[in-house]
Amino acid sequence: MRHSERLAIAAHLHVLLRRKTGRVTDTEWMAADRAYALEIVRFTRERAQSDGLPELNEWADKLEAATYQAAAAPAPRRPLAQALAPQPPDPPPVPDRYVGGIR
Amino acid sequence: MHPTAKQLIGPKARKVAAGAAALAGSAWIGGAVAQTEAAAAAAPALVRPGLVPVSSLSGADTAWMMTATALVLLMTLPGVALFYAGMVRRKNVLNTLACVVAIAALVSLLWFAGTYSWAFTPGSAWWGGQARVGFGGLDFDLAGGLVAVSHIAPHIPESVYAMFQLTFAIITAALVVGAFVERMRFAAMLVFIGLWSALVYTPIAHWVWEPGGWLAKMGVLDFAGGSVVHVNAGMAGLACAWYLGPRRGYGREAFEPYNLGFTMAGAALLWVGWFGFNAGSAVAADGRAGLAMATTHIAAAAGALSWMLAEALLRGRASLLGLCSGLVGGLVAITPAAGFVTPLSALVIGLVAGLACYWGATGIKRLLRVDDSLDVFGVHGIGGIVGSLLTGLLADPRIGGVSGSVVTQALGVGAVMAFSLAGTALLLWLVDAALGLRVAERDELAGLDLALHRERIGG
């Protein structure tokens, strides 16, 4: 899914949340930041349940799917010469040393 | 040295006894040898800030103190700012920087409004006087050839002395930020820090550095602020971390530092700027300042390497954050001792501090079970305590004119620890009741850059 499509979903949800709950959101950030988008999804579902607004659930599902799809999106096509060139090793994963303290 | 001009705790709190005649060519007048006997005879010893002839000032000392002031301010802006900002998560970098900048501005205005007067003018043993309240008194009279000086440093303009001390007040408040980053509301933070600077930092500075202060009279040695700055900030940080509670996800999620390159740049500014912090606390461009510069540098280097060694032995590898933390730990520990100890003693202090602060930021942190985000207590608190006690052990009377006492140092450190912890906790409770201290959960998750400032770091 392209960024423009995610932005469209975010914009629709922004308008829906504004009208139904009064909550103001950052549309662009919703389309760009995973953590923020998932938080908005959580909030939307919470309000859908508490305020009895089932239409919010539909758009929460769409935003969630779009967010996870963006995270799992395949890498863009690379030219053959670049793909065959020796690749640098992947960086090691974030160590757990930053859990419970940074030192 | 004139026998009645007893140097209790170093140049920053020289006790100029009333009637101590600055008459002989070799007499100390608040820390500077009289230029000539005639000048000495014409300049009665001050016991409170006052006006003196411009000709009695020392140009060299004034120039050095202005330089030292700039160096210490650089330690905060941007030293501490970068040091801390590099260690927080990406979504909170700008807020961390904003806190440091705002605190520098706030503390500056409060200083000249009143806190300088309450810290550094004579009053009681617990609180200073009103002589410099309301941006008053830092006079320069061109026609009359007179300039205001502090009784503590009568050879430099009081404007310079007040500015120098201000940079210490600024950095102490800025250091506390490291304990509560990523979860305190900005406006409430400003109110809290303003009150803390006035009601916690100010009296402690008065007790230790104004000659009439009770800890100064007791003989506590604190050359440049081991207890006033570092123990104080460490305990205040601990109180903040405890009161606010842990960050969401603390202990479960990895809080990856945004950019340890920032942290290293900040640490480098701290190292270099600390020459102003410690050597500047000699309040003179002289041999003692030179010695303080050397001991400062040795302790920083030793601290960096001993932390690095501990980390390499216990974790199998050295780290940039460890090197930066160790050098800061060494600098913190040498702060109370810089103008009292030999270079060899500085090596010992730095090596011990590197190890102690490593333990403070790891083992002790786990024991305390408090989310002190950037280890303000572990590095500044522990480093300050260790340095203050070692000053009692290692102070060389040939250098500072006084011998140390571990018992006296412990009493002084204990008093500062207790007051800082209790005073800070009380202020936190008051500000929380009035304004609310902690950000909302959603803001904390979104990041304070966006939530509090509507700003986002680029790239």
Compact overview of the structure:
Chain A has 103 residues and is an all-alpha fold. Chain A has helices spanning 3-21, 27-32, 34-51, 54-71, 80-84. Chain A has a domain at 3-74.
**Would you report the number of β strands of chain A?**
0
Q: What overall geometry of chain A do the principal axes of the alpha carbons give?
A: flat
Structural class of chain A: mainly alpha
Mean pLDDT figure of chain B: 92
Question: Could you name the ranges of chain B where pLDDT drops below 50 across 5 or more consecutive residues?
Answer: 1-10, 13-42
Helix content estimate of chain A: 55-70%
Give the number of helices of chain B. Answer: 17
Q: What's the CATH C level of chain B?
A: Mainly Alpha
Order of helices and strands of chain A: HHHHH
N- to C-terminal distance of chain B: 60 Å
Question: From the helix content, strand content and strand pairing of chain B, which structural class follows?
Answer: mainly alpha
Report on the structure:
- The complex is a heterodimer of chains A (103) and B (459).
- Chain A is mostly helical and 103 residues long.
- Chain A has a domain at 3-74.
- Chain A has 5 helices and no strands.
- Chain A starts with a helix and ends in a 19-residue tail after the last helix.
- The relative contact order of chain A is 0.14.
- With 459 residues, chain B is mainly alpha-helical.
- Chain B has one domain: Ammonium transporter AmtB like domains (Ammonium transporter fold, Orthogonal Bundle), CATH 1.10.3430.10.
- Chain B is 62% helix and 3% strand.
- Chain B has 17 helices and 5 strands.
- In chain B, the strands form 2 sheets. Chain B has a 3-stranded antiparallel β-sheet. In chain B, strands 1-2 form a two-stranded antiparallel ribbon.
- The N and C termini of chain B lie far apart (60 Å).
- Residues 1-10 and 13-42 of chain B have low confidence and may be disordered.
- Chains A and B meet through helix 3 of A and helix 10 and helix 16 of B.
